[in-house]
Amino acid sequence: MMFVLMLMYSVCSSDGLSWAWRKLPCDVMFSNRSVLMDCSGRSLKEIPKNLLWNSTELIFSHNEIRTLPKDAFWNLTNVTRINLRKNLLQLKKDSRVFSRLAQLKTLQLDNNNISAFPRDLPPGLQTLSLNSNHIQNIGPLHFEGMTKLEVLKLNENCYRSVKCKIIIHNKTFRNVHLTVLELSKNRLQKIPPGLPRSLQNLSLLLNRIEYIDAFVLQNQTNLRLLDLSGNCPFCFNAPFQCTPCQTANRSLEIHSDAFSGLVQLQDLRLSGNSLTTINPSWFQNLTTLKYLYLSFNSLVREFESGQFFSVLPRVEIVDFSYNNPSQTIYQRLKLSTGFSSLKSLQTLHLEGYIFSNLCEEDLVPLFALKNLSVLNLGVNFLQNVNLSVFRNFQNLSLISLSDNRLMFTGHTRMRCKRQGLSYQDQDDHREGPYIHTDQEFRRYPPFTKHECLMTGPVLDLSSNSIFHINPLYFTGAEDVTCLNLSFNFIASYFNGTEFNHFPKLKYLDLSNNRVYMHSQLAFRELKELEVLDLSHNKHYFEVAGVRHSLAFLKNLEFLRVLNLSWNEINTLTNKTLDSASLNELQFQGNRLDIMWRKNQEFKNLFKNLSNLTRLDISYNKLCQIPEDIFSCFPQTLTYLSVSRNTLTYFEWEQLRYLPRLEVLDLSKNKLTQVTEKLSKHTSSLKVLDLSSNLIARLKPSFLQDDRSLLTLNLAFNRLTQVSDASLSSGSGHSLRLLHLERNPIHCTCDLLDFILWLKKSDTVLPHLATDVLCDLPEAKRGHPMVDLDIENACINNIIAQILYVLTSSIIIIMLSAIITVHMFYWDISYIYNFCRAKIKSHHSNADCTYDAFVIYDTSDSAVEEWVFNHLCFELEERGGRVHPLCLAERDWTPGTSVMDNLNHSVHRSRKSIFVMTEGLVRSGIFKMAAFLAQQRLLEEGVDVMVLVLLEPVLRRSRILNLRRCLCGHSVLEWPGNPAAKDWFWQNLRNAIRFECHGVQSKIFTNYFSGR
């Protein structure tokens, strides 16, 4: 009591402990004096260090823990139960990890890699579970001091490997007061001797025990359950390595007095042992036996003779299934009159007998059993039965005839009279199953729906060959309230007469058939029908040109649940479903997308279901919901599922049409955003599931003023930031449960407000410390959000903000510059050179009459044409000319010598342009002009030569190559690509306008200056 008061005080006085709990990778639950920490399924690699010191129960199952250090539980003095199932544990010898836990009562280490029995276990341990490990040696030393151990489970420690052999030494359990011992699936060849007398449950399932003598169980007077199933199974079709027993008849040999000392035994399991005979002396002293399992043997003849039934007066449940391993097909079922001795029998399982016809006289031995309530005759390949035979039973609540070949089309009574008890061809053999898969096979057959059982008497005719419902063959079942006809081939028209003999029917299962609904009279005879399952009947709904009518619903006044799932319904003859009683409609796996898109009338499909509270329209391939479609939904809806569609947008405004809606499931769609303010559209919603969508952000006022929402699931989305403003209602109301698992959270300072809100809030975030992980920053990717000290890192961070702005600006500028240069390189170059020319170009000297003197081969008409039509046009007509060009044919003075004209032209022009062709190179005027240009270079220190290579010349000239290296901009080649001509002319203008000094190249300067 004092502990509870202290705990309550610490919780109420500070939120520090609450925040510490949130950082735990576990769910913490309190109940009276117990503190449960559930850390299961968190992908943990080790035991957390910050476990609550007052924990009483620890669950670490389904993780990836490999080792347990000595101090793993050093401060947990109050722990009573530890669950470490399904990990990768390899316990070290003498680890003493559990020895300090004085209060430990239960230790579960199943499904690990433990190869040796753990030592130094606490003496107060009561339950030890080591199933599915690799322990092969067990001796008395392992249990020294463990006087309080009651339950020991060592199943499946030596099962997978053929060479594996488990050794249990003599007197191993001598000083242990066990009540439960499980040694199943260990390849044991005999029952361990020296078992404690206190034993109540002994499980030796699926071992290799071949013989049980008279003394090994003689002292087990307290034993209540003995499981010896599967020790000598039939090995055909066995899905495991199976070796037949080496006994005389390949079956388990049991001494006649083997069970004589088990005077308190209640549950005996001998299934799967190839037994061919039953010795009545086995049961002679079993006066308290209630459950007897003899399935998967070969005891058909024993059931016919029935000599052992008289010694089983108190047996309540018997399983005689699959006792015909040869799969011989019998014409009739033959039961011994000894069955009438089973006065206490309540459940009889008789599957796999394999007979064709069931007649009234076949079941006579069972008619006197007043307590018999469950009769299971499934998987018998039964072809004919008269249901009226079951009228003779006084208390039947379930008749299972599933997995047979019933058709209900023949004359069953006549066949019963004609056919005797003769056998069919004995050579017709089939291989059957090997052992019953349900170890807890008790009162009811598997797969029997609980909802069906709750209505009353059940008739199960599922998985047969029924293709038509003929009322003549369903007489005698007037008391049945649940009828299962699923997995047949029924294609009846259903005109309101098929079920006349089922006046009390409340539950009808017609799923997985080929039902054709066209008449409004269908099922009208079922006045009390409450549940109708028509799922998986898509055959006729996919056929075009036939009627698809569900008008019969208005005749079913008490119908509460209707399942129309997985029918691919894309059209209906009647445009509305009419029912004043229907509460739940399952409409998954249909095609509402087609119905709502192609026909506006189908918008009212659910409008007339005036009492509907639950509607599931998932798996309908909806990519959008029509506008105002919810206005055509019943206002009584409290649950609506639109999950597993392909919705990209949801009109939240439509929720105003559903004033009572409490649960809305929109999971597994493709939604990218949520409403700005949920409370504007609904005031009743309690659960909202938005998991597995594409939502990247929440609106700041998402839950503002909301007073109803309790659970919000945002797991598996694309949320990078979570704001406290989005999740805070501001009205004193807060969420109870918030799922944020598996979102790419950006653990930056923008998350600070959410962390502060979380510290003060009572909202529970499942798996907060293991599955709410950071995606950014890169260094913290995969780390739990709550492990980062965001609060201390982000408060008063002015310098960090300044650095952030500065670095962001630099990065943005650099990126912008790089992208701009990459995309607009030519434009920038042009603008740069243009501005440079405008700013740095020198003023024309007074002595310069011409911009350039053009020297070319005047004898070549093509060159002459290029000079006048292209060169002169570009340099004189365009580009901002200052002085004209000097051309020999145009500007030289007639009568003056060539040498004087040439000298005058070179010295009165800023530059000399040599249009290089083979003809010019061979001419004398080229050499004279070049000498004059060189003279200006020597006298004035100005390079005036500009070489325009109109065609390839002087390829091996060292002078030309040297000029390319020293002043490459004065050597230009006429481009072959027309797109580059503008660039050529601009470079030529630059070469003419800019003054070029004699020393231009940095290489040249560095060489002669010694730098």
Automatic annotation (TrEMBL):
GO terms for molecular function: pattern recognition receptor activity. GO terms for cellular component: endosome; plasma membrane. It is a single-pass type I membrane protein. The chain crosses the membrane at residues 802-826. Keywords: Endosome, Glycoprotein, Immunity, Inflammatory response, Innate immunity, Leucine-rich repeat, Membrane, Receptor, Repeat, Signal, Transmembrane, Transmembrane helix. Residues 1-16 form the signal peptide. Its main location: membrane. It is found in: Endomembrane system; Endosome. PANTHER family: TOLL-LIKE RECEPTOR 7-RELATED (PTHR47410), TOLL-LIKE RECEPTOR 8 (PTHR47410:SF1). Belongs to the Toll-like receptor family. This is Toll-like receptor 8.
